[in-house]
Amino acid sequence: MPDHLGADPPTLLAAHGCWYPSADPTGEHVAFICDRAGVPQLWSGPARGSGAHVLDGDPEPVTEVSWSPDGRWIAYTS
Questions:
Q1: Residue 5 — very low, low, confident or very high, per pLDDT cuts 50/70/90?
Q2: Burial annotation 36-51 (CB, 10 A radius, 16+ → b, else e)
C-alpha cells in the first residue's frame, strides 16, 4: 500500500508463492505459509534479507500462522 506521499513501501523479504505473513513482536522475523514444495508449509525468516527456511515439512497443508505475544512461539493450523 502506498504511503502518504504515494510511494510504495520497500520490499523487505521477497518470497514468491507465499502468503499470510506474520511478523514477530519485534518485527525482526516473519512466519508465513509457502507452497514451494507443492503443499502449503510453515516457513520463517528474517524480515530483512534472505535466509527463510521451512519450519514444518509435514504433508498436511498449513492454513494459518501467528506469533505468540512474547515472540517465543508460532501457532499454526494444518
A1: low
A2: eeeebbbbbbeeeeee
Per-residue confidence (pLDDT) for residue 17, from 0 to 100: 78
Residue 11 domain flag: no
What amino acid occupies position 9? P
Neighbouring CB atoms inside 10 A of 31's CB total: 22
Based on the structure, what is the number of domains in the chain? 1
Q: Tell me whether residue 43 is in a domain.
A: yes
In this structure, what C-alpha cell is assigned to residue 66?
501467528
Residue 12 in any domain: the answer is no
- Cell of residue 48, nine digits: 530483512
**Domain ranges, residue 28:** 18-77
